[in-house]
Amino acid sequence: MHMPLQETGRLLAVLCLTLAFGAAPVFAQSDDAAGRVKAVAGDVVIVRAGTSSPARVGALVYESDSLRTGTDGQLAVMLRDETRLALGPGSEVTLGAFTFAPADGRLSLVLRIARGALSYISGRIATLMPEAVRLETPTSVIGVRGTHALVHVEAP
Amino acid sequence: MTPRRAVLAFALIGAAGCGPTPPLQTAEPAPRDLVALVPDPETGAVGRLAVTTPAGSVELTQARESTTVRSGGAPGAIVVLTEADIQRLFGPALAVQPPAAVRFNLYFQTGGDQLTLESRAMVADVIAGARGRVAPDVTVIGHTDTTGDAAPNTALGLRRATLIRDLLIQAGLDGSVVDVRSHGESDPVVPTPNNTAEARNRRVEVTIR
Questions:
Q1: Of A48, B69, B86, B87, which alpha carbon lies 20 to 30 A from A152's?
Q2: Biggest distance spanned by C-alpha atoms of chain A
Q3: DSSP readout, B84-148?
Q4: For the purposes of burial, counting CB atoms within 10 Å of the CB of B28, is it exposed (0-12), middle (13-18) or buried (19 or more)?
Q5: Which residues lie below 8 Å from residue A154, measured CB to CB, with a gap of 6+?
Q6: Which residues fall within 8 angstroms of residue B130, CB to CB, at 6 or more apart?
Q7: Distance between CA B180 and CA B113 in Å, rounded?
Q8: ipTM of the complex
Q9: Beta carbons of A120 and A112 less than 8 angstroms apart
């Protein structure tokens, strides 16, 4: 197979980037993590800093991560403050902000639903400070005063 | 011309006259968002949701109430969904919803890390609770009453919490998912003056999620 030199260079660059990011530790202290994957079915990836990796049960979820399910995908995540999230097929949800430091009074939870179906059940952030929780869709902002919200966003 | 298109055309003409032209958008079909409020699966409690767009706001307060929003519009009138509607849109998500976190309180004899008899019997329930979960996370927080000084009580709270963590690890739980900390005498269940023995405050709180 012949490849133009430019193309080969680009491929190498991508490969190097993949290796550099791939070498990062998979597990970190659970204190830094926002939550953990509790259930996966079908095709599901976690996108972190532009790199996507398959979601597995037990994987940690961090602030700024995007969760994406394929057309047959389902995903469940429990956040550190006991917030529960479940995604149906064809969904994309980004953990826009997560801060759970009740001792310092620092609490925030922002979820951005780009498409698909999300089931959200409040955790302790919503109990302690309801105004710290915000669910965002392409059209709306949803304020949560407890407890169980369902959000569906049609793909554009 | 539909009213919606008329409004859009008017907006474009207006914008062209008084500032930079916004990117041209196709008016139809606008993506649609739906927001619904449903009862908590464990307690049955129904909360409250406020759905807000630049054009308006709607508050959902009753079970299965929903509103739909199209790009640029206000949230639509409240519609009560049927159970079938909810299953059609959210069935696969609801099917994998994780169970609620569970909490246990284990109590200690005064001054040390000896569990009370009743709480010793409850350790098996805690272990079963953790084993019954997929990929569990466990938080173990030690507490004391206000007998003695704050600093040694923080240390005592940590000893109590560590004891419980060790019991969980002995039972086969992965230690890396157990978070151990002490609140010492600073977080009593029953507020008391300083130097007060209070059995309900001498505890370790275990949360499994």
A1: A48
A2: 62
A3: HHHHHHHHHHHHTPPPPPEEEEEEB-TTSSPBPHHHHHHHHHHHHHHHTSSS--EEEEEE--SSS
A4: exposed
A5: A115, B31, B32, B33
A6: B136, B138, B168, B171, B173, B208
A7: 15
A8: 0.81
A9: no
Q: Six-digit token pair at B168? A: 């969980």
User: Global pTM?
Assistant: 0.81
**Using CA atoms in the order A136, A142, A147, A150, what is the torsion angle rounded to 10 degrees?**
-60
Match 């000896």 to its residue by tokens: B114
> For A28, which DSSP code?
-
Question: Is the CB of B94 inside 8 Å of chain A's CB atoms?
Answer: yes
User: Which one of A74, A84, A144 has the shortest CB-CB distance to B95?
Assistant: A74
Mutation site, A139, A144, A151, interface B, largest B CB count within 10 A? A139
Q: How far is CA A72 from the centre of its chain?
A: 18
Asked if A143 contacts A130 with a C-beta cutoff of 8 angstroms, the reply is yes
Is there a contact between A57 and B134 if contact means CB atoms under 8 Å apart?
yes
As a whole number of angstroms, the distance between CA A131 and CA A111 comes to: 13
- Judge contact between B64 and B37, C-beta under 8 A: yes
Tokens describing residue A125: 């952030």
Give A55-113 pLDDT, tens digit per residue.
Answer: 999 999 999 999 999 999 999 999 999 999 999 999 999 999 999 998 889 999 999 99
| DSSP designation for A103 | G
